[in-house]
Design a protein that fits this description.
9 helices, about 50% helix
């Protein structure tokens, strides 16, 4: 792969970190977005430097259009124009719909779905002008099958793939691919914090009998990001151990 510049939103998270590593191992120069007050971007950067990865970081709230624009500007000032964008930032605020407050709905839609527009909008013109781009949106199995207590999350994650399919068609003749990756239940610190009983219930639903690994998601993202993957666009690749 040529030395491409990649930006991973939510890059300091469990899955995001592995995506950053996989892209770097494929020869990319990588920037990760982080959010002050939520993540320790500089601490993450220093820790990964000890592991031999020289990642740039760019701070900003991807749910806010102006903040997302400033974040992309910071990343491009450090590394150059973005060739590969991975929209990985996301949160959950699970609740049955009849109990859900509007702020729980709004927060999940803003961070999981609005962010995809906010960040992609900053890079799409440049990609079109250069005749190359790779956009990969990290959705979820629950955006494909739904999940109790996740009307907000499932709607946002399903919406991400609708965005993918439309932008894939708009961009296809410009050398830009747009794809979705939909992970199932993955072994991250967030999942581990749910407790042993909850995790066991999750595993019981997975035909392969285990949680996925963040590296397994990262491997598919790196494949889709490669120059050689130019004939795959508008796809939704499920990585869920046979759940759906």
């Amino acid at each position: 792969m040529t030395s491409r510049v990649a930006l991973v939103t939510g890059g300091t998270g469990g899955i995001g970190t592995e995506i950053c590593k996989a892209l770097a191992n494929n020869g990319c120069r990588v920037a990760a977005s982080w959010l002050a007050g939520v993540d320790d971007g500089e601490g993450w950067q220093a820790k990964l430097k000890e592991e031999g990865f020289d990642f740039a970081i760019a701070e900003g709230d991807v749910s806010d259009f102006e903040a997302a624009a400033a974040m992309v500007k910071e990343a491009e000032a450090k590394l150059g124009p973005i060739d590969i964008l991975v929209n990985c930032a996301g949160i959950t605020k699970d609740c049955f719909l009849h109990k859900m407050e509007k702020d729980q709905w709004d927060a999940v839609l803003r961070i999981n779905l609005d962010s995809v527009f906010n960040v992609t909008k900053q890079v799409i013109k440049g990609m079109r002008g250069r005749g190359f781009g790779r956009i990969i949106n990290i959705s979820s199995v629950n955006g494909q099958k739904g999940q109790i207590g996740q009307t907000n999350y499932s709607a946002a994650k399903a919406g991400m793939h609708g965005f993918t399919m439309a932008l894939a068609q708009e961009s296809a003749r410009k050398g830009i691919t747009v794809n979705t990756v939909s992970p199932g239940y993955i072994a991250t610190s967030m999942v581990a914090a749910m407790g042993e009983k909850t995790v066991k219930k999750m595993i019981d639903q997975i035909p392969v009998g285990r949680l996925g690994k963040p590296e397994e998601i990262a491997r598919v993202v790196a494949f889709l990001a490669a120059d050689e993957s130019g004939f795959i666009t508008g796809a939704n690749i499920a990585i869920n151990g046979g759940m759906h």
